[in-house]
Write a structure and sequence with these properties.
By secondary structure, this protein is of the alpha/beta class. It folds into five domains: 200 residues, 3-Layer(aba) Sandwich (Rossmann fold), CATH 3.40.50.300; 150 residues, P-loop containing nucleotide triphosphate hydrolases (Rossmann fold, 3-Layer(aba) Sandwich); 101 residues, Winged helix-like DNA-binding domain superfamily/Winged helix DNA-binding domain (Arc Repressor Mutant, subunit A, Orthogonal Bundle), CATH 1.10.10; 73 residues, DNA polymerase, domain 1, CATH 1.10.150; 105 residues, Orthogonal Bundle (Arc Repressor Mutant, subunit A). Helices cover 50% and strands 11% of the residues. It has 36 helices and 17 strands. The strands form four sheets. It has a seven-stranded parallel beta sheet, sandwiched between helices.
Amino acid sequence: MSAVHTARSFLKDFFGFDAFKGNQELVVESILQGEDCFVIMPTGAGKSLCYQLPALMLEGTAIVISPLIALMKNQVDSIRGFSKTASMAHFINSSLSKAEIAQVVEDMLSGETKLLYVAPETLKKDDTLDLLSKVKISFVAVDEAHCISEWGHDFRPEYRRIRQMVKAIGDVPLLALTATATPKVQQDIQKNLGMQEAKVFKSSFNRPNLYYSIRPKGRKDVVHKEILSAIKSRPGQSGIIYCLSRKKVEEVAQMLQVNGISALPYHAGLEARVRAQHQDAFLMEECHVIVATIAFGMGIDKPDVRFVIHYDVPKSLEGYYQETGRAGRDGLKGDCFLFYNPNDIEKLEKFMKDKPVAEQEIGHLLINETAAFAESAQCRRKLLLHYFGEGFKQEDCGAMCDNCAHPKEKTRVDSDMGAMLAVLKDLKGEFTLNHLVHICMGQRSDSVKDYGHDQLPGFGFGQNQDKLYWKSMVRLALVENLLKKNIERYGLLSVSAKGHEFIAHPYKLEMAVDTEFQNVSEEAFESVKLESVSDPVLLQHLKDLRRQVARAKGLPPYVIFGDPSLEDMATKYPISLEELANISGVGKNKAQKFGEPFVQYIEQYVEENEIERPFEIVLKGNSEKSAKRVSIILNIDKKVDLPEIAKQLGITFESLIEELEQIVASGSKLNLHYFLDQFLEEELLEEVFEYLKTSEEGDLEEANRYFDGDFASEELQLIRIQFISDHG
């Protein structure tokens, strides 16, 4: 019986599969014949089986070098699930106790262990090399081989020493595997491992079941609501959310938890024991969402992940591809959402400022590729596959990306494209994207003047179009292979052979201009006011109703509900007191006190106008903010001076007043008289109260003018807070 037939039989008997997928069979056959192999196979295509199966069939132990403790544990658990004994697969890393390591050594020396997973840091230790010298090694597999390359998205210096460590083990076959390798990274891996003559097996990078979508990232609370909406519309489904920092991971995980989502954080700052518990909870479906750092990565081989959300932009397209590839491994649809804000790109670039210049140049190039992908109006799938050196026809996407599902209007650009390529051809060299764009637009940058390119006949030919248009044109030219990008020289551009042909014989070419995303600073997340999308007719009716209720109760309208609350009602159409309590600035107490006529009117309005109410997401506050407000209320009950409360909480006096306004707006009562009495006569307080009773809006500027500036703005604000607390 041939090795292949034996492998097929073993595949069925051990793993229960009837057939190999893609290149798996060819790879297994090559390893069984003792050949070096380089396998490039997308996430979910079955890379691990390529070394697991021959390891089980060959005499001796296969060494699998892996960068992730989580991945090691996951794969060992998987093999043990198929095996009768736990000794068949082991890992050695920092998470093991001395007793557990002793058990691994015992099983290795007895010949029972067929697969041993190690990190490169563990492999270089004398104890590890001494152990491996005492057993027969069938072959060495380097998983996540892109970590070898400085051009890869997850470079690890220890990976550069793997070849040296493998030589110390002996003359054994070498297998390198990765899910993400651009042609440059592939070349770098083979050169570093000394396997230029290895057999290369490259599968298509296309994941037709994944839907790619880019969403603008604005205010933090808005992003949180979008994430909640996405998760709540997929009840019970598993997903991963990637964030840039550990702090953000904890914040997002907590936000999900307080909103009823079973979510857990996962990052390098957690104890190994806690990480393992969180991973197991995710695999066992005790928790549905894992929130993880991009930098640490996730080695979780879970087939039914239905969505992957990038809260922050990843550092490279390789990283993005690998992380999104954890969705839909079972072949069913997976949704991949990336929240994009150019401000995040600036942050990533700042993180690199202390790195060596060469590393900074590589990092900037990788980050710019990610930005181009996010901003592009072209097919996402075509862009991704082009990045990995694979051609793709846009019509084959099947509307499985946002740009194909909702295409922007295109215009013919073959004339402009030809002119742009001709300009670059005349430069007789390689230049940056910005240099080319400046020439097209007629901008005399320092670089353009230094080269004398402002004297060229084509200088400024495209000044009627803006920078976004010409950046879009360059990106289109790259995807159409009309331009070449020199990776060795950090992305400098030149005209390709196909581009020269286009200049001579142009053909019809259409383009949609890329998307210009708003650059939103972190500080603005909390302060930017969104444009109202409320129902204007209902809003006016609610204002009329508020006036009637206020007249009946002898109170000013703003004490009943503020304008922002009415706008929120006219947007979300609450039809029960419970829903009304979740409207901005209402709360349970106010809903009970004033809400009944409002929800009755809204319910009638919705029914008469056949309005489909929006899917409602309630973004509950986190425990930190709740704890702060509880602390304020308790201190006021103890009659602690307000400036002292602000000092205890580490906030400004103005911020404390804002918190007090939120507390009373949601219906909680406060007694500030002990503080007001310190600087205000009772008659004056009553005078201001009488004015506020007659004021339609309770506007502080109007009040200040009415009292001829006798009160400081903070004093009037506090008096109004007390008035609303007493009457609202």
